[in-house]
Amino acid sequence: MTASPLPLRPGQVAGLAETLPLWRVTDDGKAIRRELRFRDFRQAFDLMSAIAAAADEQDHHPDWSNSYNRVAIRLTTHDAGGISARDIRLAEAIDAAAASFGA
Ligand code: H2B
């Protein structure tokens, strides 16, 4: 198992607006979130399957929910008690997967 990740410093959190413009920092500053909307449930679920594969590869997992064609994703690092570089890396993979689905 790898060492526990460090949470981002406040300046790094502020910089997320530029590096991950589709994501918002939650009010408590401990997570980032993005909401996606698709044509239908099948598209939404296919994206979730793609994200699940990326998450397992990275050994870093989203907190998320799905309602029909919407997927709400929240990324936080439980082991760090906040946002870490692991969340950034997974967010980038999610953005790439979503773009390939046209979302
Ligand atoms: N996912 C997230 N979001 N945060 C974590 O701290 C985390 C994880 N820890 N996936 C990983 C798994 C850890 O439990 C394993 C043992 O590496």
Automatic annotation (TrEMBL):
Pfam family, one: Pterin_4a
Domain of life the protein comes from: Bacteria
Keyword ATP-binding tagged: no
Enzyme class: lyase
Keywords: Lyase
Catalytic activity: (4aS,6R)-4a-hydroxy-L-erythro-5,6,7,8-tetrahydrobiopterin = (6R)-L-erythro-6,7-dihydrobiopterin + H2O
GO molecular function: 4-alpha-hydroxytetrahydrobiopterin dehydratase activity
The enzyme's E.C. designation: 4.2.1.96
Similarity field: Belongs to the pterin-4-alpha-carbinolamine dehydratase family.
Record HAMAP family: Pterin_4_alpha
Protein name: Putative pterin-4-alpha-carbinolamine dehydratase
Organism per entry: Pseudochelatococcus lubricantis
